[in-house]
Each structure stands twice: as structure tokens, then as C-alpha cells.
Prior knowledge:
- The structure holds two protein chains of two kinds.
- Chain A is an alpha+beta fold.
- In chain A, about 15% of the residues lie in helices and about 30% in strands.
- Chain A has helices spanning about 1-30, 35-45, 85-90, 130-135, 280-285; strands at about 160-170, 170-180, 185-190, 195-200, 205-210, 215-225, 230-235, 240-250, 255-260, 270, 290-295, 300-310, 320-325, 335-340, 350-360, 370, 380.
- A five-stranded antiparallel beta sheet of chain A has the order 11-12-8-14-15. In chain A, strands 9, 10, 13, 16 and 17 form a five-stranded antiparallel beta sheet that branches.
- In chain A, helix 1 crosses helix 2 (about 35-45).
- Chain B is built from 15 helices and 24 strands.
- The interface of A and B includes residues 264, 318 and 345 of A.
Amino acid sequence: MDRTKLLTAGVTIFAATATVSLMIWREARNTPDVPRVPVAVAAVQPVAPVPVPDRIALSEPDPVPANDAPVSLPPAPARPVAALPPEAVSGPDLPETAPLPVSAPAAALPELPVDLAERPGLAPADTGLPDRIALLGVNDLSPDSSERGVRRNSHGVPCGITLSSIAKPAAMAKLTVTAPCRPNASITIRHGDLVFSQVTNALGSFKTDVPALFSPAEFSVEFQDGARAETVVNLDDLETYTRVALQWQGFAGLHIHALEFGADYGEPGHVWSGAPRGPEFAASGRGGFVARLGNEGGLAPRTAEVYTFPAGLSEEDGVVRLSIEAEVAPMNCGREISGQTIQPEDAGAPPAVALSLAMPSCDAMGEYLVLKNVLRDLRIAAR
Amino acid sequence: MSITRAARTAAAIFLTFFAGTAGAEDVTLTSRDGSIEVTGTLLSFDGEFYRVETQFGPITVDGSGVICDGPGCPSLEAYVAEVQISGARSIGAVLMPALIETFAARNGYRTERKVEDDTHFTYVLTDEQTGATAARIGFRIATTAEGFADLLAREADIVMALREPTDAELARGEEAGLGDLSAPGRSLVIGLDGLVPVVSPRNPVREITVADLADVFSGEITRWDALGGPAAPIRLHLRNQGSGLADLFQTTVLSPALKLPALTVSQHGSNEVLADAVARDPRAIGISSYSAIGNAVPLTITGGCGIRSPATPTTLKTEDYPFTAPLFLYLPPQRLPVLVRELLGFMRSPGARAVIRRAGFVDLGTEEMPLAVQGDRFANAILSAGEETTLADLKALVRGLEGGVRLTYTFRFRDGTAELDPQSLSNVSLLASSLEAGTYDDHPLVFIGFSDGNGGAEGNLRLARERAEAVRSAVLEEAPFADRTRISLRIRAFGEALPMACDDTDWGGRINRRVEVWSFQR
Lengths: 383, 522
């Protein structure tokens, strides 16, 4: 019994590692930077037939279909690296789904220093381009960065990290992380007590919409080596929305379930990450939505879910029932999950309360853990 | 297997015994100036007081005044307040956690909630500065009845209850060495709730008499047409047996009518599930609580004589609503750890009121009701006036109340006795604290006695005055530190002149026999 479990766990971990490597490798093939090719190649062969279970490296669709053979990259129009305008990479609206218009067979790649950030002292000479990132006043990674000694990636884009934010409807903050020298890197994003982890894409960027818990809303992004950047955005419509957050470390598979105004499971008023709705729905006053932040795929993942209800727009009196649910699975059974809840309070930023959750034993595999008493129901009064 | 267990039990008993004897004379408490010394076996330490078994018997010593020496001395820093709380789901699921989290945040403790499952969890409070664990507060969410059972079995220290203990529970408490649970000081009221009949928002019926409510739930009225609703059968929903709310419904609505619930009743494990089930079914009626009306709508209780009693924070505070349900905490006979006593103190303090309201309950704060918002009451008074209550009486009443505001402190009595009911006892101590805090310095308070209309008007007036006097002395007795030169507590009585409900029912008479408190500008 136990040996079978161990074996299953081993195979799962191996498959996951191999899949991550495979995806990193595929990502890498889209850009001239090929930081981990040797490792990835070794992993590709035995894993190729394993179906990819989850999207791990990216938050948005990958330009390469997951089941494609990694070697059959479509030829792309060649374009000299130097001609790439730096704005296209460092600007806040970079579409990360589009591969860089620079693509060449891996073997033909020039021997460029790949991640200069990790090799201090290899800073290339100043090319005279204005350091747009430094002018934004955002943290630069390199300790000795200056007009004369800015590190750049293989495209000549400065290595500095930027984090920008834009207010969006339903008190959401659109965050854009750009870190041109840190592709496929783990990042931790913080907003007060709210924390989640993600991974930058092959270009070192990452975008997401985060529900703000307070305004002015400060956000920070931090890389594993401690490099970080910050941003602040005002959300004028924050008061309209009531938010409840649940976050945890490691694989727990937790979900917030909201039953709005007496809805039953599976009905339109049942909102969870399997039927999440979106900010537009809330902004129109019709009901709440769930945002899932971070992903549970990495090595030490931190995941959060935030349920938002437009209390200030509601035309109904009633209660939104909130529960925490999780399927008992091999990855979480018998474990103690540590996390936090952030629930609305009367004044100021809501305080986070630490939570430790004893998952049911592995005998209960496939059953559902349902906690109705941890999150307080929201009492909504019609405006 | 059983042999091993028996051996282990024997070993445990031996160890306990051994620890007991080896610990003899294990502490010496010396006063800070060295003048007094107490030696003995440490019985307990609650973070503040040592309890020591000495040759003269058990002695309790204030820890702040002594230095403890010996192997039995507890580490002051390592002391962890531990308490186990058990009982009513409606108090334990939402309100208590919210109160603990707020108390912790305001007193420099970090909070962790360790969840075992949905009905068992523990709050661990950690000192923010030292990082030391300060308290472990365990919860078992069940029913009022199970809470009392846990207290009797010594598996709980504090019971969350929606009703007072039954005579049987009181008797078993005495037997179990828990003393008299009904004694003053053994219970606290931390907030208010009320028993409320609910229906679906799609059901047109919005009010019901108490008599009809009893007939509906006993199965004698089975169709909505009989209540002025649509031609449809009635579906009944109640809480599960043992829940405080179900017990309260039985004792306040069904038992006085000598009835039992129909067998067709659907039972639910929580008020929330009940309210949602009712909200979804236009043919349903359920007994929920004010705090858990949820997505259903409440029915207003009406008297046969046309007096209406909706459940509102004000009518629950004044007990003008007939079915209030104070939120009780029943305490053990032994002294609780300091941190727990501070937590209980916080729960009754003004700082907890917003938390209590947010959790959907009615807080203990006082409200003022000027004459202008009491129009209904005066309309009732005029309608009920007759041979015994004359126009002159009504004029005297209005003149007497002019310029005053009614406070929500109201005092009512157990049926057929001169004994105050639990919510009124709680009001005595709340008003006494306000007097001691100087809230009513230079603002004369008038205790006004009212009676039901049964019997002669003159006798009722005398009774009403006696009750008002009794309440005033009870309040003064609890307020020894009030500044007697600045407070003024006067007595008046208006007898049966201002009825709140119809006298033709037991509950109506109970509502009418009352002492109100009015505040006047000097």
C-alpha cells in the first residue's frame, strides 16, 4: 500500500519535473536565450509521451501547442537584434503571448552572455541608449547600475526589473512585471498580507490582474535572489467592493465557494474558480467573482483566491455563503496546510489570520473537505 | 491489544500518583519584602494566582506579590492560558472567532486558527513582542445541549448557550461538583438574538400570530390559505433536536399552547441551512433566528388585538419583541486564566459592539428612543383605553414622559414571579456599570413601572411601582462606585396605561409587565 503510494508519488514528481523542464525548454526555443538546453534535452526523451497535466510556466496561452514536437519550430522572419526597439520589451503592455520576432535554430545562436544579472562584472559597455527603466524610478537589479554601467540582456535590453500597475474596473490592479534578464523565473507578488507566487515567461515578463484589498494599493514583486520592484496605484472604486481572500502554501487544491443569495451548488449564483465570472460582472453590479492568483505548480508555490462582491452596487438584500472546499488528493491528504484568511473588518486594511488546516487522511481520497465556518458569510444590504 | 492498553493506563495512573506525592512541598512563595512565606504543593497557577495546598489547607496567593521558589514553580513566561469552549453553533461558528480575532489584534497578539474540521478548531494566541504562546482556545461547535453535556463531562470550561440550563442540567451540574450554574456570576450575556419565523421572499405572507404559529408547527394548520396566503400546503422547517433555538421554540411557543412539533417537520443542522432551504421554497415556513434570517424574510409577530412586533435591534434590546434569545456564556466554578477573563471582559465592552453587529447579532449598547419614534405605542394606548384607563390617565402619561427619551434598558420578570429574567439581569449590570462610569451624571433617570391589564387598575398601579422600586434597588446595589451626589434615579408608575401587547395571551402579559428606564435633561 505505502510502497505503491511512494511509487506513484515518485513517478508524479518525476513526470512533473520533466514536464517543467520540457516547457522551459520549449519556451527557451522561442528566444535566442537558451539557458537550460542541456538539462532539458536530457529530460525530453523519456517524457515525450506523457500528457502535459497542467500549465506550469505561463499564465497565458503558450504560442507553442503543448503536444507539438519541440524541434519543429516554425521559421520566423529574421530580424537583426539591434533593430529591436527597447520599448517593445520594457513597455508595460508587452503582449507576452507573442514570440519575439527573433527566432533562429538553437545551434545558430550567437554566444551572447545570457543572464547577465547572475554574473556581476560582465556588464557590457554602455550603448548610449537612455535607460528608460531607471527613469521610471523603479528598482534596478544591479547594485552598480548607472547611466554608464547598465546591464543588458542579449537583445541589449536593460536588465532592470520593473513593476507597473494600472487601475481597472472592479478595483482590480493590472500588474506587469518585466525583467528581461530573468526569463522563467519564480516571482512572489505581495499586496499587504496578500501573497502569491508565479513564474515569468520566456521574455522575463508576467502580467496579471489582482483584486486590491486597500487603496492606495502597494504591490511588490520579488525574485528568489531578493531583487525586487514596487508600484502603487489608486483604486477609486475600492469601497464598492467587499473582498475575502484565502491563501496557502504548497499544494492544497483549496477553493473558495460562494453561494450568492440562496443559490444552490451548480446554479448561476454558485461562484468558484470552476465558474469564476469576472470583474466586468461585478462592476455591473450583477454579482461577485473569484480570482485565483498564483499557481500550485512550482516547487514552493503560494496560491491565493479572492472572492469579490459588489456590495455597494447590490440591489438585493441577503447573504452570500462562503465556504472553503478541497478534494482530498494524493498531494494533500493527511497533510497540514498552512495559509491565511483575510476577511473584511470595520476599519482600515483587513488583518490576515493565520490558518492551519488538517487535511483528511489519505483514506478519504476523492472525498471533499468542506469548511463552512472558516470564512464568514457576507451580509449584503441593498444600496 | 487490550492488555497493552490496560498496562498503559496503569502506568499513567501510577505516574500521576507518583507526581502527586513527589511534588509535596514543591513550592515556596515568599513575599517581595521577605516577611511572609508559604510552603506547600502547587495545585494550580492561572497566570496570575497561585493556588497552594498547605498544612492549613488550600491558599490562593496573588502571583504579583510573591517570588516562587522550588521545583514546582511554573515558568511565568511559559504560562499558556488554556480553555475549551463548547456549545451552540450560532455563537461559536462566527461570533466567537470574530471576537477573539479582534481582541487579539487590539491586545498585541498574533492569531492562528488551527482547523481540525468544521466543528473543531483552536485559536492559538502568540505574544507579538516575545513570540511566546499566550493562549490556546479550543472550540467544539455543536448545540446548546451538547455544550452543557461537555461542561458536565469536564470536556469544556465554557458553554455557549442560547437558553438557560434546564432543571435536569442544573441538578447534574450540582452532582458533578460544578456548583449552581444559575448563580449570579456563572453566566454572561455577550449579545442578543431572537427567535424569528421566516418564509421565502416569494411567499406573500408577512405576519403571523403566536397562536397560529403554534398551530402551524403542531400540524393543525396545514395550508397557507388559512393564513391569508396562496392555496398551497405549508412545509415546516425547524432546527435539529438539542439546538437552543429548537428548545426555545418548544418552551416559548409550543409548550404554552400544550403542543408538540408535527412529525412532518424537516430538521436542519444549522440556522443558515434552514434559512436557505426556506428561502428557496415559497411554501416553506421555518423557525430561524434574527442573526440568521439570511436570504429568507422574517414574519412579524402580531397579537390578536392588532399590536405588531417586528424583530429589530431595538425591540430585541428592550425585549418588546416576545422571543428574544440572549447569547449566554456559562462559566466554570474555578477561576479562569487572566487572558480568558480579559477576553470575556472585552466581549461585553463597547469595543466589541461593532464586531457583534457585523456578525449579525444585536449588541449590548444602549439606544435612546425619543417620544417621536414611539407613535405606535401611543396609538395602542389610545386604542386600549377604556373604563379603567381614562383620558386623564393618558394625559398624565404623556405629560410624564414629555421631554424624556426611553433607554433600551428594560426589565422584565419570569412568568408569575418577581424574579428578573436573564436578559434583565444582564441589563442590571450594564446599567450599573454605566452609572459608575458617570454616563448618567446630571441626567436624571426615571424607572417607570407598567403592568398588564389583568385585575384592577389600582392594584396594577401598585404592583408596577413596587417592581420599579425593586429594579432601582437592584441597580444601585450593583453600582457601589456610582457618584451618589450626581446621579438621580426616580420612580414612577403608569400601571396598565401603555400596553406593548395584548393581555389575552401569556406572552402578551409578560411583555406588558415591565419596568422601563427613561432619561431626562435636568
